């Protein structure tokens, strides 16, 4: 745990916008009464905890700023809805605007010069397509060399390909993706997800100097998924990589998720002295569905049928740090159980 100053522009933008919308707060039970004008003079001590890698290309800043803005809005009795709050969260981290909702969310570019109409809208909630299962391969939890913000700035300034992508490709794909999500059309969803991820990283390579977010393990995971999808004749899994080497793999249902985990563990087994419980985290039921209880079961996994018999199978032990099993979830929620708070209510300091 470390303490950092919130003097940075991104934090201050969010704090300023929320404070300007604050209302009176009164809690008779706790003896609290704060007038709207008092919020300008009150200091904040904020505790934040991530249960997944930070600054490693898994949208940690999006989650953090979404929770920060949502929490401050609740604390200061802000009346704006999530869509309006998303325009504030966006000033901390662009993707944070989408993280204020659960399920599938669209970020509307907007037209106003001040960005006030650049907001997020929820397409469908997390229950709309609840058979989807997500496996995240944490290839590296190290902080990336090029941040998302500076990387995108360099890309816009130097990549001719990004202009074509923004003007010709993305608008059409957004329409197609909305339709695929609403109709739960997994083949279309997978094709669009994989294609857009690959083109994003092509644009990164087209930047000067080139930005390398993915690594050899990332490429091997793509190859594993592509071979399986082709052998089945229709996509079983979609993959996407953000600004980092870590793979987000979306399986069309629980049965496919179990088969995917078997393939991943065959190609990327843990180190011999690893604890399987810390190698597979999150929803452990996927591990049970895959019929794996211990490391012996991992060692006994047969080669996937799509691997040609005449090609020697190479295993990449230890190349993946661990896997997270999860599913499409909800946005920020206010916890009412005080024992779950990260700050001590008596001292205001981290517990």
TrEMBL record:
<dbReference type="Pfam" id="PF18376">
    <property type="entry name" value="MDD_C"/>
</dbReference>
<dbReference type="Pfam" id="PF22700">
    <property type="entry name" value="MVD-like_N"/>
</dbReference>
<protein>
    <recommendedName>
        <fullName>Diphosphomevalonate decarboxylase</fullName>
        <ecNumber>4.1.1.33</ecNumber>
    </recommendedName>
</protein>
<keyword id="KW-0443">Lipid metabolism</keyword>
<dbReference type="InterPro" id="IPR005935">
    <property type="entry name" value="Mev_decarb"/>
</dbReference>
<dbReference type="InterPro" id="IPR020568">
    <property type="entry name" value="Ribosomal_Su5_D2-typ_SF"/>
</dbReference>
<keyword id="KW-0753">Steroid metabolism</keyword>
<keyword id="KW-0756">Sterol biosynthesis</keyword>
<feature type="domain" description="Mvd1 C-terminal">
    <location>
        <begin position="134"/>
        <end position="334"/>
    </location>
</feature>
<dbReference type="InterPro" id="IPR041431">
    <property type="entry name" value="Mvd1_C"/>
</dbReference>
<keyword id="KW-1207">Sterol metabolism</keyword>
<comment type="similarity">
    <text>Belongs to the diphosphomevalonate decarboxylase family.</text>
</comment>
<keyword id="KW-0444">Lipid biosynthesis</keyword>
<dbReference type="GO" id="GO:0019287">
    <property type="term" value="P:isopentenyl diphosphate biosynthetic process, mevalonate pathway"/>
</dbReference>
<keyword id="KW-0576">Peroxisome</keyword>
<keyword id="KW-0547">Nucleotide-binding</keyword>
<dbReference type="GO" id="GO:0005829">
    <property type="term" value="C:cytosol"/>
</dbReference>
<dbReference type="InterPro" id="IPR036554">
    <property type="entry name" value="GHMP_kinase_C_sf"/>
</dbReference>
<keyword id="KW-0456">Lyase</keyword>
<dbReference type="GO" id="GO:0004163">
    <property type="term" value="F:diphosphomevalonate decarboxylase activity"/>
</dbReference>
<feature type="domain" description="Diphosphomevalonate decarboxylase-like N-terminal">
    <location>
        <begin position="8"/>
        <end position="120"/>
    </location>
</feature>
<dbReference type="InterPro" id="IPR053859">
    <property type="entry name" value="MVD-like_N"/>
</dbReference>
<keyword id="KW-0414">Isoprene biosynthesis</keyword>
<dbReference type="InterPro" id="IPR014721">
    <property type="entry name" value="Ribsml_uS5_D2-typ_fold_subgr"/>
</dbReference>
<keyword id="KW-0752">Steroid biosynthesis</keyword>
<dbReference type="GO" id="GO:0005524">
    <property type="term" value="F:ATP binding"/>
</dbReference>
<dbReference type="InterPro" id="IPR029765">
    <property type="entry name" value="Mev_diP_decarb"/>
</dbReference>
<dbReference type="GO" id="GO:0005777">
    <property type="term" value="C:peroxisome"/>
</dbReference>
<comment type="function">
    <text>Performs the first committed step in the biosynthesis of isoprene-containing compounds such as sterols and terpenoids.</text>
</comment>
<dbReference type="GO" id="GO:0016126">
    <property type="term" value="P:sterol biosynthetic process"/>
</dbReference>
<keyword id="KW-0067">ATP-binding</keyword>
């Amino acid at each position: 745990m470390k303490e950092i100053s919130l003097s940075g522009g991104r934090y201050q933008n969010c704090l300023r916008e929320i404070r300007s919308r604050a209302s009176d707060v009164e809690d008779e039970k706790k003896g609290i009464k704060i007038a709207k004008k008092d919020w300008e003079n009150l200091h904040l001590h904020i505790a934040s905890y991530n249960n997944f890698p930070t600054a490693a290309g898994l949208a940690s800043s999006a989650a953090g700023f979404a929770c920060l803005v949502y929490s401050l809005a609740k604390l200061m009795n802000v009346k704006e809805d999530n869509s309006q709050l998303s325009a504030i969260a966006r000033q901390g981290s662009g993707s944070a605007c989408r993280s204020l909702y659960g399920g599938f969310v669209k970020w509307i570019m907007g037209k106003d010069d001040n960005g006030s109409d650049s907001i997020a809208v929820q397409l469908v909630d997390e229950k709309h397509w609840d058979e989807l299962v997500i496996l995240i391969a944490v290839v590296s939890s190290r902080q990336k060399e090029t941040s998302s913000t500076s990387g995108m700035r360099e890309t816009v300034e130097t990549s001719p390909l990004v202009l074509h992508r923004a003007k010709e490709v993305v608008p059409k794909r957004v329409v197609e993706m909305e339709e695929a999500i609403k109709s739960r059309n997994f083949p279309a969803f997978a094709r669009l997800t994989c294609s857009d991820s690959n083109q994003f990283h092509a644009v990164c390579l087209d930047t000067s100097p080139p930005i390398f977010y993915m690594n050899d393990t990332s490429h091997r995971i793509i190859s594993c998924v592509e071979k399986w999808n082709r052998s089945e004749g229709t996509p079983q899994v979609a993959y996407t990589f953000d600004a980092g080497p870590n793979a987000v793999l979306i399986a069309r249902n629980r049965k496919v998720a179990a088969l995917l985990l078997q393939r991943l563990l065959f190609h990327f087994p843990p180190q011999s002295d690893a604890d399987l419980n810390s190698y597979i985290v999150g929803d452990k039921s996927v591990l049970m569905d895959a019929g794996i209880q211990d490391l012996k079961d991992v060692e006994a996994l047969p080669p996937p049928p799509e691997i040609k018999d005449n090609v020697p199978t190479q295993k990449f032990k230890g190349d993946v740090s661990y896997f997270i099993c999860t599913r499409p979830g909800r946005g920020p929620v206010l916890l009412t159980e005080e024992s779950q708070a990260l700050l001590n209510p008596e001292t205001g300091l981290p517990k």
